[in-house]
Amino acid sequence: MAEFDYDLFVIGAGSGGVRASRIAASHGARVAVAEEFRVGGTCVIRGCVPKKLLVYGSHFAHSLHDAAQYGWTIEGATFDWATLRDFVASDVDRLERAYTSTLNTNNVEHFAERAVVAGPNTVRLASGREISAKFILIAVGAWPVMPEIVGAEHCITSNEVFHLPELPKRVVIQGAGYIAMEFAGIFNALGSDVTVVNRSDVILRGYDHDLTARLQPIMEARGVKFGFNRPIREVQKLADGSLLVHAGEGDPIPADVVLVATGRRPKTDGLGLENAGITLGKGGEIPVDAFSKTACDSIYAVGDVTDRVQLTPIAIREGHAFADTVFGGKPRSTHYDAIPSAVFSQPPIASVGLTEADARAQLGEVKVYTSDFRPMQNMFATQAERGFYKLVVDAGTDKVVGIHMIGPDAPEILQAAAIAVKAGLTKAQFDDTIALHPSMAEELVLMR
Questions:
Q1: For strand 193-197 and strand 225-227, is the pairing parallel, antiparallel, or unpaired?
Q2: DSSP label of 377
């Protein structure tokens, strides 16, 4: 008789948990996973995937607006929020079925209920059943933070934004991170009146300043309003069902929807980790070592629940590395240098490697190359928005240590460019590469 019910029990069936389950099972482990909501996790169910579909839907507003310049006559064009919302929901359903099928195909047992840690080798399901496992993996992700403001019950987060019954006429968004900037662009393009309020005067903290300094005026020219140093104090619900937002010292802002996008926190509340001697970090995160092991030798954690990088591809990589290490006899850790990232704002921005400020602080002498240009696809646009690319180069080695871009398709272009940064290619090697003309990407090899 087996000592444990399973070799591995995973709490959380998001991207990291599903990958770890599948790979561990492929190594011969007996695996089970518990998920209290829907298989797929934040990215698939209520995050980057449905958000990106909304971004695509909103892009048609710009295309239709500029169509006349290209010779097209389009009359009577209208937008129906319910059609887009329901299509996005149907694709989320499809993806959930696909993730569930992956678990089933790999003989991973799936419990559709909440599980908590009852001990170093025991989990307890919401039904009361206790299950033993040689190893436990925590992959429950993170959860939106709702600040303590009066009337917070009248606000929504990115969890609920995909299910709005109708397109709001007026939207107030608190926060200036990537979630705030992305939904500001979406709602603005779809026709809502959008106001972004933030407790500081900085947007997209951590991104290169040259990108954020260009994004804000472009968004303002498109109609997005910004209120800096104006944290929300109170959200008041009026008799007609509309909202009045009291932010900072300015006049109250009328709204139909208030979206709070002030960050995400590891979803560790009530998870029972103290039963295994695990102490959480100040932000609720689970401290882990290079191989994702916690302070308890039988319990590991991957993804947004840890004290590392909160990105879906990182969770997937960590989950795979964990399974190879513990069950595959191939110990390996995840590397966190040269991680590409993007904000699907309008226009989008994308970065990999060091910002100019970080490069100067870490390396001392750096060289910076830039290209400020008007993308060809914007030539007929009503608003003359420009693109901007930037290379940050270590002056001592000539290695390109950072690439930062704003403009159409920037994320798609950056993925390939990130390989060059990860490989440590030099500016001379960029210069030796023939340009692909006419394209925006050619600017990466033409900066002198």
A1: parallel
A2: G
Rg (CA), the chain: 24
Please choose, from the candidates 353, 346, 364, 355, the residue with its C-alpha nearest in 3D space to the C-alpha of residue 409: 346
- How does DSSP assign 132-188, residue by residue? EEEEEEE---EEE-----BTGGG-B-TTTGGG-SS--SEEEEE--SHHHHHHHHHHH
Backbone φ, ψ for residue 283 (5° rounding): -95, 15
Q: For residue 443, which of 391, 393, 381 has the smallest C-alpha distance?
A: 391
Beta bridge partners of 130: 124
Both tokens of 196, joined, read: 């972004």
User: Residue 141 — very low, low, confident or very high, per pLDDT cuts 50/70/90?
Assistant: very high
Distance CA 9, CA 357 (A): 43
For residue 331, cis peptide bond before it (omega within 30 degrees of 0)? no
Angle between the 209-221 and 356-363 helix axes, to the nearest 10 degrees? 170
- Average pLDDT in the chain: 94
Query: Read out DSSP for 379-441?
Result: TT-SS---EEEEEEEETTT-BEEEEEEESTTHHHHHHHHHHHHHHT-BHHHHHHSPP-SS-SG
Question: What percentage of the chain has pLDDT greater than the value 70?
Answer: 99
Please list, in sequence order, all residues whose beta carbon lies within 8 angstroms of the beta carbon of residue 353, skipping any fewer than 6 positions away.
338, 392, 400, 401, 402, 403, 418, 421
Q: Which residues are catalytic?
A: 437
Structure token pair of residue 202: 């900085």
pTM beyond 0.85: the answer is yes
Q: What's 31's DSSP letter?
A: E
Give me the helix-helix angle, 312-327 and 15-26, nearest 10°: 30
Least confident of 56-65, 125-134, 259-268: 56-65
Output phi, psi for 141, to 5 deg: 75, -155
Instruction: Spell out where 306-365 has E strands.
Output: 341-343, 349-353
The per-residue pLDDT for 1 is 46
In DSSP terms, 235 is beta-bridged to: 245
